[in-house]
Amino acid sequence: MKKLLLETSFSKIYIVVMMLITLLILGGYFSYAMFTVSKEQGNAISIITGNLVYDLDVDGSNGNTLTVGARETKEFTVTLSNPNNRKARFNFYYEGSLPEGVSAGYKTGEGLNTPPSEVGTNLETSGTAGSSNVYKIRVTNNSDSEVTITLGVEVGLDYNDLVLPSNGHLFEEIKLTGPASDVIPANVGDNGSTYDDGVDTFITGTNPNNYIWYSGKLWRAVSVNKEASTTKLVTQWNISTITYNPSNQTNFEGSYMEDWLNDTSVDGFLGNLRDYENFIVTDAKWNATLDATSLGSITRPSNSGTIVTDAVGLLNMYEYQSSNNGETNGYLNNGLYWWTLTPYSTSDVRFVYNNGYAHHNSPSYTDGVRPSINLKSSVRIVDGDGTIDDPYRLNGDNDTNLSGTLLSSRYSGEYIKFGSGENNLYRIVSHENGTGTKIVSAVPLKNSGSHIESTFGSNTSFSSSNTIGTFLNGEYLTSYVDSIYSDMIEDSTTWYLGTVGDGTSYKLAKYTDTVMSSLTSSTTEAKVGLLRFGELMSGQFDRYSNNTYYWTLTPYRTSYVRGVSNRGDADSNSPSNTNGVRPSVNLKSSVSISGGTGTKSNPFEIALQ
Predict the structure, then answer these.
(1) What is the pLDDT of residues 389-405, one digit of tens each?
(2) Which of left, alpha, beta for 241 (phi over 0: left; psi -120 to 50: alpha)?
(3) N or C: which end of the chain has fewer CB atoms below 10 A?
(4) Domain of 591, in residue numbers
(5) Are residues 59 and 104 in the same domain?
(6) Other beta carbons less than 10 A from residue 131's beta carbon
(7) What does the angle CA 262 – CA 263 – CA 264 come to, to the nearest 5 degrees?
(8) Running DSSP on this structure, what letter comes out for residue 604?
């Protein structure tokens, strides 16, 4: 579609206007749309095709250039107009790299248009002449030398007399609204603001526009580091729930928690993040300094405190406090229990309660896990407006037209349409068997809006013939999964039944020891099973009040089975109790994507090749 081009030069001011030759496929024939370009006087560039004219005006910037001094912020005022009655659509992006220390992004506010939606900025009113839209682009130069920013433009239009591709446009849409570190704080919306403590700029408020979709998971942007221009994220929901560490071991470094977050195997979080070397800072510094101060009075922990270097960590209590000035109703309160990095004492670790208050637990307990990462300063936003319905999308993680792609190439957390009725939404867990795709129901099964409950069985050992296993491998397959989907499921999967007690590692659910030297001999074969304790996607993905306790297949000890409570922590129940059910299956390696983008609002549609 249209594109706005920002280019930079230290020594020479230049104007780049790119001419598009766009290819349209029409049933095997090729049609071309060509544009001519002319330079106008003053501060306008005009792109002309037939009787269609687009003007790009840059106000107060010495023509099409803007000089930004050292440590200075300036703005372009950009006016895009279309005086005709043919559809014209513009999507903005930055091409190439800005000079070191320079960032650019949209400024939004009263009287200004927001960045274009995913379908572009439509400068036409049907049957009448088009309109003009005004935008402001903020450029910040944190370097020690002056730079010159030069503006160019590429423009596309919708031809009403041509058959268009499915997206309705002649041009592939690319919208790069700028580095994440610049765009997100500037566009927090009506329910957000910022707090600058001199080191980080924190996003604050009850529900700011700081949602990001990356690697199959919904994240919130928490802060931007002022020196490195990195953006700290945390998952919106609890991806899993595990024991933090053995009793009286409150250290993050060397803990089960650090291990789970940075595990690069098929079982760990980091190993299932998409191309993480390209997106996140792998040697990030995490401040895990002990602090027992009450929420609202916590000061920034010293850099001489307990610092751990890792790719993935958790938020500390100061970062949680900074999200809403110490109040408990900020956007980081997701209505669940979840661990932080901060020890409360030598015997307890701090966690956030489901009402948003700060509490502390023995590290042998099992609260929810909300992984945190730092996006590199080079990561740019290509789509979205930061709202929950249209989260920001990152360059390199915004795939389109995936039809024919094997599902086994996709990422943990992505959504799939699977099954029927109200229970047709599933998520990718992992590719545990190497060739297929393990999936799980996005939420516990429901019947007419109410959660279905089942006893586990007469003992703690899951099988296809115990109570819950009989339901899953019988009634579930016939009543909750259409035959077209049932045929996609592997006939038999190995389910691991290792016991995980208090203060022990999540790895014992699958392995004989914490170094994963061998798989547990406690297994069963079944077509349909459940997730195990500590597995990816075994967290809660809604608030406390909307959840139900559900079973895992991991024994806690000889008389109890692990489950995930509606608060997001892991609990244990007698197998004779009744709890919710989240079915899990392994799909065949030949299952491919036939539609969708893998998000909750547009899940993958799948088919057997």
Answers:
(1) 999 999 899 998 899 99
(2) beta
(3) C
(4) 401-608
(5) yes
(6) 15
(7) 105
(8) B
